[in-house]
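Fold it.
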Amino acid sequence: MPTTPQALLDRLDSIAAGLRDSGQGLALLGLGSVGLETGRLDAYSDLDFFAIVQPGSKPRFIDTLDWMEAAAPLVYAFRNTVDGYKALYADGIFAEFAVFEPQELAGIPFSPGRLVWSADGFDARTLVPTPADRERHTPSVEWLLGEALTNLYVGLGRYLRGEKLSAARFVQVYAVDHLVRLAPRLETEQPAYVDVFTAERRFEARFPVLAAKLAEWMGGYDHTPESALTILTFLEARFTVNAALAGEIRALAAAAQNQKDA
């Protein structure tokens, strides 16, 4: 259900108040569009945040969501990780959050956020992530290219076995995921908010030239062979692609097309 940006910010403030009033809360860190990116907040945004609580008290905040319901009634809550939930308020506001104790934060990858509330004496420096971990895990062009090509190869083999759903995912999802991650090496990125953990967010605004090719790369359940060939041709025009592997992919695509037309 659509809401308003101000209603979302007000609700986050109310959740922070519930955390404060619990007596064991330490801080609430707003992330994404309710963090440092409030400029993109709209009627379809949700609440992403970390609740930081006193050492030893995390189970209380995970097992009982009264601190969340102090803000408004919840109609649904699903524990999607060991650390947190996805939850829906009765008025349609959706939240995705995690609960951490301060000593856990050093091992948690996250983007910089906005400190909505903190208890007196809390060291807010613990809520500032370092980029070192993320930089160590930035994949190389060679790895992304290799993954994309082998996704095509495996996917077409599965298509020929009759595993068309798996084939579509390998070619039109997994391979395309790697193309999306290659995008900064292929096109000048346009100004937009970047989600460092989810490369497809706002892809159309950030990489409009590549985005125009998505319909060809993702032709649908019945068009996996065609999608694979389109992706292969695109990669060959921009990178050095192993000729033997490219030949195998084309042979599989031709066999899949013949099977489809039979």
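The mean pLDDT is 91.
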